[in-house]
Amino acid sequence: QVQLVESGGGLVQPGGSLRLSCSASGFGFKHYWMNWVRQAPGKGLEWVSGISSAGGRTTYYMESVKGRFTISRDDAKDTLYLQMSSLKPEDTGVYYCVKSGGPVYWGQGTQVAVSS
């Protein structure tokens, strides 16, 4: 079955960096757009970034993370990444890896906390 497993979250000080990973299985990873979506404490879901299929030549970002976050993928490893730099307290939340196109699947999420 389809599985998306995120990792790499943690506690980091403002200005710090984290790299999230999402290991995918159970579907043809390279054929699908992939996304990162987050949920801040007590708030709704917020789309963060998306990347096109087959090599990820096209990427999109929400305005507040442009220039700080970089989405990428390794289709040989069926893995999605989110490199986060210059982190701010408002980046705190649970980050989910989401497969789009066809049935939508979500991972279980990884917690990111930005605090001094």
What's the arrangement of secondary structure elements?
Blueprint: E1 3-7, E2 10-12, E3 18-25, E4 34-39, E5 45-51, E6 59-61, E7 69-74, E8 79-84, E9 93-99, E10 105-106, E11 110-114
Parallel strand pairs: 2-11
Antiparallel strand pairs: 1-3, 3-8, 4-5, 4-9, 5-6, 7-8, 9-10, 9-11
Description of the structure:
- The chain is mostly beta strands.
- The protein contains no helices and 11 strands.
- The termini are far apart.
- The relative contact order is 0.32.
- The mean pLDDT is 96.
Residue share in helices?
under 10%
Element pattern in H and E: EEEEEEEEEEE
Approximate strand percentage: over 45%
Q: Structural class of the secondary structure composition? A: mainly beta
Number of helices, where a helix is a run of at least 4 consecutive DSSP H or I residues: 0
Largest sheet: 7 strands, mixed
- Cα shape: globular
Tell me the Rg in angstroms.
13 Å
First CA to last CA: what distance?
A: 40 Å
Mean pLDDT: 96
- Uncertain stretches of 5 or more adjacent residues: none
Number of strands: 11
